[in-house]
Design a protein that fits this description.
With about 130 residues, this protein is mainly alpha-helical. The chain is about 80% helix and about 0% strand.
Length: about 130
């Protein structure tokens, strides 16, 4: 997923984190294209898990505290975490499959697009309530 200006939520640090995640996924697609996907996939999954955990923690603290929308945020986080844990389990059980990994990256791209849209909507709603 290529980062575009319309992905901006208006929250600069969250935008920076979302953009970094987009770039990380795109860079891993290049790693796969260069034939190094199998050798680095486990590390990529571990980094993705750590990065996402820190991102969700930051996002919740910055945007969702007191907004009454924590359940939606938790649902977003759990959806991502379920997909990631499932892929990690399959990888550890069956090993690396380029086709499956590319499909997983597509799933994460789709999830990220929906997540950014949801964050953007919540932020705009929060701003309307404040004003």
């Amino acid at each position: 997923m290529l980062w575009q200006a319309n992905h901006s939520t208006g929250l600069s640090e969250l935008d920076r984190q979302h953009k970094a995640l987009c770039e990380m996924i795109d860079e891993f697609r290049e790693v796969i294209a260069n034939g190094s996907g199998e050798a680095s996939y486990e590390g990529f999954l571990e980094f993705l898990s750590t990065y996402a955990g820190a991102h969700f923690q930051y996002e919740r603290a910055q945007m969702l505290t007191g907004s009454g929308q924590g359940d939606i945020a938790d649902e977003d986080q759990h959806s991502f975490t379920r997909a990631l844990k499932a892929e990690m389990a399959i990888f550890h059980d069956q090993g690396y499959s380029e086709r499956r990994v590319l499909g997983f990256l597509d799933i994460i791209d789709g999830w990220l697009g929906r997540h950014i849209h949801t964050v953007k909507e919540r932020h705009q709603l929060r701003l309307r309530k404040i004003s």
